[in-house]
Each structure stands twice: as C-alpha cells, then as structure tokens.
Amino acid sequence: MALRTGIEWTEATWNPTTGCDRISSGCDHCYALTLARRLKAMGSAKYQKDGDSRTSGPGFGLTLHPSALELPRTWRKSRTVFVNSMSDLFHDDVPVGFIRDVFEVMSQTQIHTYQILTKRSRRLRRLADSLQWPQNVWIGVSVESDRYRFRIDHLREVPSVVRFLSLEPLLGPLQGLDLDHIDWVIVGGESGASARPIDPIWVAQIHEQCEAQDVPFFFKQWGGRTPKARGREFNGRVWDGMPKGERRAV
Questions:
Q1: Per-residue confidence of the chain (250 residues) as pLDDT tens digits?
Q2: In this structure, is residue 244 part of a structural domain?
C-alpha cells in the first residue's frame, strides 16, 4: 500500500526497495533507519533483513520488493509520489535491471508525478543515459553541506524535466550556489532528539541565491525535537514555492 506522508513536498510514498547504508554526514541520524528498526520489531515483512552494523542497522538491509512494482497501477487518482522514502534507488546493490523496471512503471503511469531523491549522484550520472526519462519523473540530490556540492554538478547532467535539490538536513552554509538547470530547492533542518541545529543565516543566504537566480524555494522546517511545533515560517511568511510551469503529464 502507499503510505500517507508527513513530508510537506509530496503526497504519497512508494518503496520498491527498502534499506540503505550511511554514506555521508546527512545520514548520521537517518529517520528511515530508526523507523526500519521499529518496523522490524513489529514484524513487518519488508523490514526483516539486517544491514551492516557499521553503516546500517536492524531491518535496514537493502532489499528489493518486486511485488511492489505494480502498486502505482492500482491508484486511480493522480498523486505526487516520493519514490523510496525508505531507501535509495541508486544504491550500488540495486541492479540496473530493477531500476529500469521502476522507470518503466513510472513511464506507464503518467497520471502520477514521481520524485526520486538520491545521495548517490555518481551512479545516477553514470546510469542516466541508459534510462528513459518520462515527463512525469523528477530527480533530485541531497546536499547537506559544502562538502557534497559536487552532487549538484552530477544532477545537471541528468536529462530529467525537473531537477531539484534537497538541502536537508542543512548542516552548514552553502554560498555561491550555481543553480543553472536546477528547477527547485528544498531547505530544512534536522528533526529528532539528536538534531543538529540549523542557522537561520544559512537559510536566508540560500533563499537570496534562489531569488537572484529565479529558482523556486521551499522551506520545509526548522527541525529540532518537535519540528512541526516550530512550523515552516521564515522571515514572517511560509515559503512553499514549487517548480514553475505545468510539469505533470496527463
């Protein structure tokens, strides 16, 4: 089944794979890893494979779910779908053939808009030309600090109708961003009991860069132990810009 989501920039989630491994600082307090541990304890069939204790955890071993591939075909109403909220489609252990199967389903269900987010930008770039990119598929990369800015350059090489950045959890300033061929920027602080703080100055700087380069800016949350209680207000208003133009293929 599709899961309702508390993610403000999407409507539903679809997980043809589950599980992942930490590869950068933004993964340190991964919400999906924590949730997988809980789901394993509850007996959920999709979260019984354990990952490497050094980079993953209980219930978070990379697992393919071929039976989930047909799920979007059962949805009669259009929706915006976050692909793999509990994994990374471009993880090294996901076979290229399975990635192509996911893309085929997305291509054949044009009523929906699909959003894919990855930290594995090198593999994304390497495989991009071997995949078919339908108009209803958006692709994004996570960039949590200046150290991972290179992911933006990789993203620019992908032939997707919409390319977006998820600067979340934002762990440091990102000045001098080149947003050429970037259609959308999402910014947010880290949530949870061990959340690392976000500096409002970092957010303001990114917002100014988006305005200067005419790129829609979406401010998700300040983060912290209870991020929803703190809201998404920024400089007196809620910033919820979306990519420009009619992006959904119908």
A1: 444 445 566 789 999 999 999 999 999 999 899 999 999 999 999 999 999 999 999 999 999 999 999 999 999 999 999 999 999 999 999 999 999 999 999 999 999 999 999 999 999 999 999 999 999 999 999 999 999 999 999 999 999 999 999 999 999 999 999 999 999 999 999 988 889 999 999 999 999 999 999 999 999 888 887 655 444 555 555 556 777 644 433 2
A2: no
Please give the tally of structural domains in the chain. Answer: 1
- Asked whether residue 138 is assigned to any structural domain, the reply reads yes
Q: Is residue 58 part of a domain?
A: yes
166, burial (CB in 10 Å: exposed 0-12, middle 13-18, buried 19+): buried
Burial 67-101 (b: 16+ CB within 10 A, else e): ebbebbeeeeeebbbbbbbbbbbbbeebeeebbee
pTM: 0.90
Residues 117, 128: Cα–Cα separation, whole Å: 14
- The boundaries of the domain holding residue 227 are 3-238
Task: Answer yes or no: is 243 within a domain.
Answer: no
Q: Tell me the CA distances in angstroms from 22 to 199, 217, 247, one per residue in order.
A: 24, 27, 32
Angle, CA 137 vertex, CA 25 and CA 189 arms, to 5°: 30
Tally of helices (H runs) and strands (E runs) in the chain: 6, 12
Q: Half-sphere exposure (CA, 13 Å, Cβ side) for 100?
A: 8
